[in-house]
Design a protein that fits this description.
This protein is of the alpha+beta class and 462 residues long. The protein has 13 helices and 13 strands. The strands form 4 sheets. The protein has a 4-stranded antiparallel β-sheet with strand order 3-4-2-12, covered by helices on one side. A 4-stranded antiparallel β-sheet has the order 6-5-9-10, with helices on one face. Strand 7 and strand 8 form a beta hairpin. It starts with a helix and ends in a 20-residue tail after the last helix.
Amino acid sequence: MALIAGIFVYPDYFNKGVDHLNKQLPIISQGKVKITLPHFPVVPFRLGLDLKGGSHLVYEADLSTIDKKDYQVAMQGLRDVIERRVNFYGVQEPLIQTQEANGRYRLVVEIAGVTDINEAKKIIGETPFLEFKEPRPEEQTQLILDKQKEIEGKTFEEIQQIPDWQIALEDPYFISTELTGKYLKRAEVGFDSNTNKPLISLQFNDEGAKLFEQITERNIGKPVAITLNQSLLSAPNVQEKISGGRAQITGKFTVQEAQKLVRELNAGALPVPINLVLQETVGPTLGQSSLNKSLLAGLYGFIGILLFVIILYRVPGLLAGISLIIYGVIILASFKLISATMTLAGIAGFILSVGMAVDANVLIFARIREEIRAQKSYSLAIKDGFSRAWPSIRDSNMTTLITSLILFSFGTSFVKGFAVTLIIGLFGSLFASMIVTRIFLELFSGSKVSESLLFWKKSNSR
């Protein structure tokens, strides 16, 4: 496993060897088919914004239908929904922030390692704003239609001179209600029993069900419009008050379009509509030079740890060092496998887990030395040393795991990425210390080498 993981982390030498062998392999004479060995797939590490750069998108929120006192709550909900879409598994490490300036509220989204703007917008996904509207009073409808005729054919400068010209921009037939996609509990794809055409079934939460019941009660015999991103999907007439919070959207959907819309709605309906106002790619803030220096510092620290355990524990320390190398290779392969975005925060989580792995080995070796002092045989000392060290190792890792899960649950962006790499590293450190190190130590069980002073210092082997 370690060998495969090592090749996966750095496949260059393996692929060069495959190229060399392919040159030596013969051609089958009859069919003249060249036998070739395949290359190992090359999967690059995904670097974060601080190391590689990415995409920078700015969305402006339309809060016209929200009470001013609820602006901050709406923006926080918007930020949470977008982050769930981009960072569902906590490995993308996006930077998502809300900004307010001159009465305008904006959402800033930065996605690491994605320099294609279209790809970045695709990752964020469509931003469906689902809304239910009820009919306007006739006098308001006529007022808006008259205002639209009044501004028809005029330039924007001339329009601004007309009193209350903004009225012409409103929907003349329907007015917005409080019922929007933020009250959506679940969306599903269904099919019309008569036409067999796809439709979308909606189930609102308790608060949404009450709003839907009130809307249908006061509009019996009238149409209620269902709009998505301000576009009319359907406007069915209400026959009676509808309780239970269930509704249907019908329209000219294909099955694929209906499934896509359902996925987007279930991913988290936006509490307010947003518009993309700025898009650009951004460069790394640290750069390749800083990355190389950080990796070099990490390498020096790892070598220092290996020297420490070797000097203190001799051959067992060397075996622990080998298990740590195997641990490091497997964890790096895991980061590649799940496409985890590597930032300095993520690297910090990985390094912290290395410390946990070293700590576990120190506890194990200290216990084994105590068992050897008690005149136990090498095999029995190994067995008892691991079993008695396990409670301390378990508790220390469990407390760190609980903390990491809390960070992942309540943290955002870089904090969540730190927690993910730390959690992966913790499980890897347990595997390295409790499995790999033990296998190495048991290889010497029953041999004369285990009784040698190469294993423990003389003062500790009496």
